[in-house]
């Protein structure tokens, strides 16, 4: 817990530097969910989150539209958790959406 407190400013600084695609995304032009692409994308993201691999940040940003379409209302919770390096929360939320 002490380490988490010490890392909080670093997490915030990193999160501030990351792009926020949801702010720039036009909801009208949001891509439709492609089930054939979602399954392997979800599996890859779950694996990275389970391993606490920061590569999940890039994967999430690269496929934000697809993930938003798949997760619906859970997207914001997962996005915040990933950007805050709270991979356990993101994993739990993602596991609830097949």
What is the number of beta strands?
Answer: 0
Gross geometry: elongated
Q: State the secondary-structure class.
A: mainly alpha
Report the major sheet: none
Average residue-wise pLDDT: 81
Unreliable runs: 24-30
Order of helices and strands: HHHHHHH
Q: Strand fraction band?
A: under 5%
Count, helices:
7
Quote the distance from N terminus to C terminus: 32 Å
Helix content: over 70%
Rg is 14 Å
Describe this structure in words.
The chain contains 7 helices and no strands. The chain has 98 residues and is mainly alpha-helical. Helix 3 runs antiparallel to helix 4 (55-62), helix 3 runs antiparallel to helix 7 and helix 6 (75-83) runs antiparallel to helix 7 (87-95). The longest helix is centred in the first third of the chain and has 16 residues, at 2-17. The protein is elongated and about 40 Å long. The termini are far apart. Mean pLDDT is 81; it is low at 24-30.
